[in-house]
Design a protein that fits this description.
Layout lengths: L1 E4 L10 E4 L12 E4 L2 E3 L10 E7 L2 H4 L10 E6 L6 E14 L10 H14 L12 H9 L11 H5 L4 E13 L3 E13 L14 E14 L4 E16 L4 H11 L8 E2 L10 E3 L2 E3 L2 E2 L3 H5 L2 E19 L7 E20 L3 E5 L13 E5 L6 E2 L3 E20 L2 E15 L5 E14 L3 E12 L8 E12 L13 E15 L12 E13 L5 E10 L8 E14 L3 E18 L14 E21 L5 E14 L1
Parallel strand pairs: 3-6, 13-18
Antiparallel strand pairs: 1-2, 3-4, 5-6, 7-8, 8-9, 9-10, 10-11, 11-16, 12-13, 14-15, 16-17, 17-20, 17-21, 18-19, 21-22, 22-23, 23-24, 24-25, 25-26, 26-29, 27-28, 29-30, 30-31, 31-32
Helix pairs in contact: 2-3
Amino acid sequence: GVQITTTEGSPDAEMKIRVRGGGSITGDNTPLFIVDGFPVESISDIPASDIEDMTVLKDASSTAIYGSRGANGVMLVTTKKGQENTKATINVSLEASYFRPINVPKFADGATYMRTYNEAEQARSLTPITSPKYSEDQILNTELGTNPYVYPDVDWFDQIFRSGNYNQRANVNVSGGGSRVTYYMSLQANHDTGLLDAPDYFYNPNINQWQYNFQNNISYKLTNTTTIDLRMMAQIGNLQGPNYNIGNDLYKRVMRANPVEFPAYFPQQEGDDGFIRFGGGEIKPGVLGINPYEYMMSSFKEVNFNTLNTSLALNQDLSVITKGLSLKALVNFKNWSETSYTRSIKSNIYRVKDGSYNPETGEFDYQLLQTGDQFLSQSGIGRNSDQTFYFDARLDWKRSFGDHNLTAMAMYMMREYRSDVLPNRNQGYSGRVTYDYASKYLVEFNFGYNGSERFHKSKRFGFFPSAGLAWVVSNESFWDPFKDVVSKLKLRASYGIVGNDAIGSGRFLYLSDINMNDSKYGANFGYNYDYHRDGISVKRYSDPEITWEKSAKTNFALEFTLFNDLNVTAEYYTERRKSILQQRTSIPASMGLWVQPYANLGEAKGHGVDLSLDYNKYFANKSWLQLRGNFTYATSEY
């Protein structure tokens, strides 16, 4: 039920993760990531070698207690920890990988490009064209490679990008423990490079990223009933590369560049001061065509970033009060900071001067189209940072009375995120009650009562309940004759409502958003009307009725095991999401509104199938075979 995609190839590009598709039109569809009990924005930077377990929660009964982001699913990640009374174990892993792009576009050579251009130009004309854009002499000399500067034939993709790149990973971790303390410590270094093929200039715009990940998990047993867990996760990194988006900016320029208009650059001349002589040409008077090679070399950016994520958890057995009762409290603090600066230079751009080429000697004169700067431009240090504080406390109770098994949980959470003067805050309460009889019949009820500052106080809190049922058929006595073939058979179903507060843009959606300094709606005064004062405009109208997206989810599942080897899980689910924030489009201009207001108008529905197969076979010679496969189908209608 999980889809993971990357839309960019840059080392710092984020993964896009979706659980059972996406149900929101205008809001965020990213699932909630929980690492060791506390929420994080991304799991991209967690080394795989540090992960002990990962669980995906998809249906309403399992996500309801997670509150405001439960509608998009939840991914639980648990990092490794040490084992009691074990010797120190050291693991070292080294990885070198080679990456090569696939589906690389194949470009026509210059002569084919020019002939095709002339043909297209003639096809669009009602009369014969006697003087096409590209003459036969130019096409022939380009085809023969007479002079690559006068008759250029540039494969811009090959000029800009390398065929592949090498990346490296190194990880070392140590784990162990005694009767009181267990520990797991890990250090990973990642080195990633990109595909740009830029030479050293006054800077090197090639992508080069180093990142170091530290994980330190310590568990200390204060008493036989009290345990403290300290988990520290840190990421430190440096990224160097161009000050533009390679996919959206440079790649598009490569795809649209003319291969025969000008060369990427001209050779250095005697007396040059080290500046590259970039090729260029006018696409219309006073407007230069874009040289992708010059654009690649035009800027540089260096970013230094670090994240420190620390949590302290207290686990207290409260059986002294009543059997099966326990308390867990967790405090988490995350600090992220980033500094960056940029460099750039305006380039010298040349073309071959008309009529200056001598075919016998191969010599020609230059015409300067753009005079570059003699010195680099450099920005100051840019700084960004944010801090997140998270706290939750939960009471758990678990008891058995013969064949009757009961559990209950009550939890409170609060989160404060600060990147500006006024922090963002959320809080909520949640609970869960489960009952099963003889491990045959299972019932579960969950609820979340969560508040978001994005809504008016009358709409701020939402109640999100869910319930689930299960029947383990294979535990019934009448199933005993079939256990040799189907050793496990379980049916389960759930229904619930979950919420999403990550809707639209802006923060306090119930308040008006006013631009107090809008020059477009200002006024001019004075004798010559040359004294201007800015006016006021409305960007968003207040609406205290804006509230949560609500998603009603159903889930039906069949689990069975064949011959004790093949585990199969098949699930069918439906989702109906309402109150999606959308802008109204049917309000007439005669109402005199500045902008069309937003309201909880949108609806979406979806359904799908998840199927997973897990085959495990153990042989007498202590070898084993494991095969896994999964299938997901998801569709949404808005």
